[in-house]
Amino acid sequence: MVNTTARPDAAEQTPGEKTTVRRTGRTTSRRRGAWAEGHTRTIVSPLELKSRWGRKIYWTLLVFVLLVFTLVFVFPLYWMVTGAMKSGEEIAQMPPTLFPKHPDFGVFADAWKLFDIGTLLKNTLYYAVGAWLFALAVDVCAAYALSKLRPMFGNIILAGMFATLMIPPIVVMIPAYITVTDVPIFGWHLLNSPWAIWFPVAANGFNIFLLKRFFDSIPNELLEAAEIDGVPPWRILVSIILPISRPILGVVSIFTVVAIFKDFVWPLLVLPDSEKMTISVGLSQTAGAVTQNQIMAGLVIASIPMIIVFFFFQRSIMAGLTAGSLKG
Fold first, then answer.
1. Beta-strand runs (E) in the chain
2. How many CA atoms lie within 13 A of 12 on its CB side?
3. Is the confidence at residue 29, as pLDDT, over 80?
4. Are the beta carbons of 298 and 110 closer than 8 angstroms?
5. What is the distance between the alpha carbons of residues 267 and 276, in angstroms, rounded to a whole number?
6. What is d(CA 197, CA 123) in angstroms, rounded to the nearest whole number?
7. Region Disordered: which residues (predicted)?
């Protein structure tokens, strides 16, 4: 038997039915277009993610990738901490052990005395605080001038600062060392002096770029209103710009302090006196006279200040890196 209720072919449809089909197709296309505009295209469609197997596969892959990357970044730190608690024979054992058989926590106290880490940390902290103050004073003023004061040839100066970012630091190390040994015009000799650390850190093109980008996002109307009230430019910087710029100032501060703690070659050249060495240089100078686990213990102690700084200011780092990227 033939089903008489079947839908007629498109050729046999009446004009009214054809018009209805066209309208329905247009409405569906509009809905799909509206949905596409409100959603970001991804490798996996949202419809597949809503399915039971789609969610399982997605979360399995996500957790796997996160675990792999976490292990890659955390494993060196774990290996350093566990290696410090191993004996010399266990460190040289092949294949190596993932966890010390007999953990020795007294090695950290031995490393503190052998390396005189207290003095090294005090020296490094002193250099870091001075470099932080000088860097903020110079970089903030330079970024404010380039962003809001608009000096003559400001774009050329900014381009010159960006050009310095393309030069490897090792290339300018010899000219910088010659300059520190005999400062032009003044004739100062800055070896074994904290000024040899502070002066090169003071002007940093990358920090100036970050600060300028943030200052550019501050509305000019706010500054113009202060100028109408007769507020001088330096007071605008201190009372208006700096309170708003706390996120980016935090990022620049962290970058400066971390750079001082991890720098090795430059302090090795300009601070040859053993009583004025930084933590990185001091550990390397004594490494030949101690055991390998004591070296690792000293490295663990030297890493603690920067780890603490990161955990306390990680929110400021993320906020400052994205601050000033969007206007409005």
1. none
2. 4
3. no
4. no
5. 9
6. 12
7. 1-34
